[in-house]
Amino acid sequence: MKLRHPCHCLRLTFQQQFRCFATKYTGRVVVEAENGRSFAVEVDAPTLQIDSRGYALPRRDLICKISQILKSPPSASIDPFLDLSDYLDTLTLTLTPSEASEILKSLKYPNLALKFFRFCPSEIPKFRHDCFTYNRILLILSKSSLPTRLDCVREIVDEMERSGIRGNISTVNLLIGIFGDGQGGGVKELIRCLDLVKKWDLRLNCYSYKCLLQAYIRLSNSDKALEVYQEMRRRGYRLDIFAYNMLLDALARDQKVDQAHKVFEDMKKWHCEPDEYTYTILIRMTGKLGKPGESLSFFQEMLSKGISPNLIAYNTMIEALAKGRMVDKSIFVFSKMVENSCRPNEFTYSIILNVLAAEGQLGRLDEVVEISKRYMNKSIYAYLVRTLSKLGHASEAHRLFCNMWSFHDRGDRDAYLSMLESLCNAKKVTEAIDLLNKMNEKGVKADTFMYNTVFSALGKLKQIPHLHDLYEKMKQDGPSPDIFTYNILISSFGRVGEVEEALKIFEELANSNCKPDIVSYNSLINCLGKNGDIDEAHMKFIEMQEKGFNPDVVTYSTLIECFGKTEKVEMARRLFDEMLAAGCYPNIVTYNILLDCLERSGRTSEAVSLYAKLKEQGLTADSITYTILERLQSGSHRTSRVRRQNPITGWVVSPLRIEVKSEQKKVRSWGRWEAVYF
């Protein structure tokens, strides 16, 4: 073999760097240029060194060269394996399996490694994979995230069996780890691994049993895991603390309490000292079973052994006591937690809050706050305020919020928003407005969402003067209203019959950066229609279509109700047909509105036909539907009814506020009536 400089990059220097695993070559110079800068060397084939077992030692220079070709192909070829084929054609020696294994180890990408693995037996003469190259590719696939990973592993195992390659115990351990990681493998694959142990005449070692145990646990099969553990005991193998904890946790999750206690005793018998995770598992198990006394015993045993509980252990213990409604002991453990410099988190406080609320002892929250005062920052205050607000304890939330206001110069937006929502839900809108005006003092800027929260509460409570004032303040001082602001205002003014104000807000919306959406039109149409201006409502309906908005089921239902109340039954029917033609499917509310309209106008047959269409659409009749049908059954020729007058518009807003009888009686009654007509 001849190598020429510079084409093959062979350079000789006086200060040569040696590597302990480099292959040694001998040769002689056969041609030298006149200037001495290039020459040709004839190199003799190297004698491969062998190890103590007679295997050829890998040639590191060859491994580096092939790895370099695969990682960064020297030519412009798209496929680096073409360059690799060209390079191997220049060699008189074949690649050995140990060298192929080292090359696989150096490759970063699993797809590239898999392709090289396939390349070797197909393109290199007389090459045959051995157990070690199979183990190498299995190890690479075990760490990869390829979507076809398991299929590739199955193909490789099938190939091993077809080729008669006998795997070793490492092969089995790798396969158990791959098929037992809980990401697509299953018990069948694990059984196949055990069959391979018999076929290859192998014997599971301690590590193999640990792999098998963990595989069954990850597959949520605690029964099989327990069988493996018992087999290990018979063979005298021992688990480490990690494996013991995995087994205990699996048994605890499956509520195998007796087995968990037995494993725990074995653990101590085999001198494997439990740690804080072990005790946490047992505390959680007994706590879920409603045995806080046993949980406390495990906790005290952990302390007696000098083990310092971590945050999870404390939370688990407090949760077990809280489940048993032991308020005093829960607070005592909480105090010890703080005393031992273990910082409570939000979950800790949520447990305490829930048990105090359940036992009607929320007054003791101040005691909890005082115990943990060195850890009480504004984020914890904010969490407590939010949690109390969600639990519906507005007074306690407000009291705690006042403490946060007093002790912290800067506020927390989430806490302020939670307090606003709590006050609004409790109908304390004056306090909500006051908080909205003052939060800027604590560095929290009131945003549009906060204003919308208060606007919504004021609208529902019909506090129109406050609504006017707050909206004017918002326009003057900011923030800018958004589409939700305008929609809330239109709906609120419509609710109290202030049509002119609603139209004014809609006009402001149209002239602003926020353009009306379908909710804006629906709110205005509802306002106009239910306050007597049905013609203007219909005009807005046409306008929204001209603006490119497709009316939805709310739009149609609102207008149908408005036409029905003004005895314009034909318009209501026409609009319903138009709704169906437009591909907008009516819901049960739409059907109820039109059924009520037809019943009041004495159109019994049309109402019956409409009910049949309701059933064909697959909708389920509700209590209002049955009430209307009962009226049809009891007096189908009635054309007029005495109705309660609306104090604003002079006519009824909702036609469906009727006392409902028991569901069973309505269904029985309607069933008899339905049999006559259908």
Strand order of the largest sheet: 1-3-2
Strand content: under 5%
Low-confidence stretches: 1-21, 636-678
Q: State the separation between the terminal residues, measured CA to CA.
A: 99 Å
The tally of strands reads 3
* Gyration radius over CA: 40 Å
Q: What would the average pLDDT be, to the nearest integer?
A: 84
Protein model, in words:
- By secondary structure, the chain is an all-alpha fold.
- Helix content is 63%, strand content 2%.
- The protein has 34 helices and three strands.
- The chain has helices at residues 60-71, 80-89, 97-106, 110-123, 131-142, 149-163, 169-179, 187-199, 206-218, 222-235, 241-253, 257-269, 276-288, 292-304, 311-323, 327-339, 346-358, 365-371, 378-390, 394-407, 413-425, 429-438, 448-460, 464-477, 483-495, 499-511, 518-530, 534-546, 553-565, 569-581, 588-600, 604-616, 623-634, 663-677, and strands at residues 2-4, 27-32, 39-43.
- A three-stranded antiparallel β-sheet has the order 1-3-2, with no helix packed on it.
- β2 (27-32) and β3 form a beta hairpin.
- α7 packs antiparallel against α8 (187-199) and α16 (327-339) packs antiparallel against α17 (346-358).
- The longest helix is centred in the N-terminal third of the chain and has 15 residues, at 149-163.
- Mean pLDDT is 84; it is low at 1-21 and 636-678.
